[in-house]
């Protein structure tokens, strides 16, 4: 009788353990990014057709609120078609940040965004020790936004971050805020307090969690000085971007801004040795010995692509934007057998993330590469 009882206990324990494993199945290839800020991170430009179509399902949003029309549910992952903050918000840097990462990283990597932003707010809105006194003196419309996050946007960001950690791994934090208060002193120290709180409350390793802060439409020395106060932070330039008014970007500038965030994050992932744009040897080669390797990028901005062919053959190499527009014809001639390195910086003047496509006979391959500034 005791033996039967013990067997039942063991079976019960095994069942409970299996249920626990199934309920907490973290995918290390699911990269999660937290985003917060004010109206530019909410999104102030109306998404266009190009923004709402062909969004890769590897790019996901974890809504921090329910959509009024019930099309999206708080805490339920969905494809990251804009808007990526709340219903009624617009295009923001997260949109093309995520697309840039998805287009640039191996196909096993997924990208997730959590965006908790409040138009018009000062950075104190996200300080868990100050938000109550801050919001009490603000306009009713701002209180209404905060109330969609149960009156505490910081707590909602942490709540959703913890939920996301059951599915993936937090890799970074995106910030765009400061139109209200980053032209005054003390802004970097306030950002550091919030960053430190997020690291503690989400049990993160600060050395592995960079914070990317976008500069303002009218550049701010306070924003630009953030890395002096917060070591693992990086400022994303707004140089050359256009505004729809004194504070907000036009749609195309949100796209470019998001790509700049993405390019910087790709660089940081590469430095960490994670998320490197790499393919398996099976993907690089076909059975006949043709190969297109990953790019080589040097500190001075020079970039090259290398390929290998098993016999003398005609090789075509072209560079394209992520959207498929041809940028340059890099090669179109016969090459002898062996490995060849082709520097292409003189033909591709732009910086950013590009696609290199190779064709030689029946062999074809493509690589997504990142080219830095000179």
What's the β-strand tally?
15
CATH fold annotation of the largest domain? Rossmann fold
- Biggest pleated sheet: 7 strands, mixed
Q: Which structural class do the helices and strands define?
A: alpha/beta
User: Over the alpha carbons, how many angstroms does the gyration radius reach?
Assistant: 24 Å
Gross morphology is elongated
Query: How many structural domains does the protein architecture include?
Result: 2
What ranges have pLDDT less than 50 throughout 5 or more consecutive residues?
9-23, 276-287, 297-301
CATH-derived architecture of the largest domain = 3-Layer(aba) Sandwich
Oligomer: single chain
Broad CATH class of the largest domain? Alpha Beta
Helix content: 25-40%
Please report the number of helical segments.
12
Strand order of the biggest β-sheet = 3-2-4-1-5-6-7
CATH superfamily of the largest domain: SGNH hydrolase
Average pLDDT, all residues: 86
Order of helices and strands: HEHHEEHEHHHEHEHHEHHEEEEEEEE
What is the straight-line distance between the termini?
78 Å
What share of residues are in beta strands? 15-25%
């Amino acid at each position: 009788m005791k033996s039967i009882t013990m067997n039942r206990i063991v079976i019960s324990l095994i069942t409970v353990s299996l249920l626990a494993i199934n309920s907490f199945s973290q995918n290390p290839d699911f990269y999660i990014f937290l985003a917060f800020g004010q109206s530019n991170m909410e999104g102030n430009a109306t998404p266009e057709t190009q923004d709402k179509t062909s969004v890769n399902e590897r790019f996901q949003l974890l809504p921090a609120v329910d959509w009024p029309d019930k099309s999206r549910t708080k805490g339920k992952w969905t494809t990251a078609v804009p808007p990526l903050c709340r219903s009624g918000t617009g295009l923001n840097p997260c949109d093309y940040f995520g697309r840039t990462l998805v287009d640039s990283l191996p196909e096993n990597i997924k990208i997730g965004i959590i965006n908790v932003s409040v138009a018009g707010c000062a950075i104190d809105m996200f300080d868990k020790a100050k938000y109550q006194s801050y919001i009490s003196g603000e306009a009713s419309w701002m209180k209404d936004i905060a109330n969609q996050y149960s009156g505490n946007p910081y707590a909602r960001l942490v709540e959703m971050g913890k939920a996301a950690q059951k599915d993936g791994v937090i890799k970074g934090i995106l910030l765009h805020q400061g139109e209200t208060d980053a032209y005054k002193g003390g802004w970097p120290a306030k950002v550091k307090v919030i960053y430190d709180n997020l690291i503690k409350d989400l049990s993160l390793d600060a050395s592995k969690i960079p914070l990317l802060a976008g500069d303002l439409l009218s550049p701010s020395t306070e924003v630009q000085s953030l890395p002096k106060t917060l070591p693992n932070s990086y400022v994303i330039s707004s140089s050359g971007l256009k505004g729809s008014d004194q504070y907000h970007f036009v749609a195309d500038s949100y796209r470019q801004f998001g790509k700049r965030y993405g390019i910087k994050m790709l660089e940081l992932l590469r430095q960490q040795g994670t998320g490197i744009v790499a393919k398996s040897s099976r993907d690089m080669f076909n059975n006949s010995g043709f190969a297109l390797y990953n790019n080589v990028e040097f500190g001075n901005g020079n970039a090259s692509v290398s390929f290998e062919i098993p016999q003398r053959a005609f090789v075509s190499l072209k560079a394209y934007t992520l959207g498929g527009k041809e940028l340059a014809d890099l090669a179109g001639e016969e090459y002898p057998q062996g490995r060849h390195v082709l520097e292409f910086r003189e033909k591709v003047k732009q910086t950013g993330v590009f696609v290199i496509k190779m064709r030689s006979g029946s062999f074809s391959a493509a690589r997504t590469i990142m080219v830095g500034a000179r």
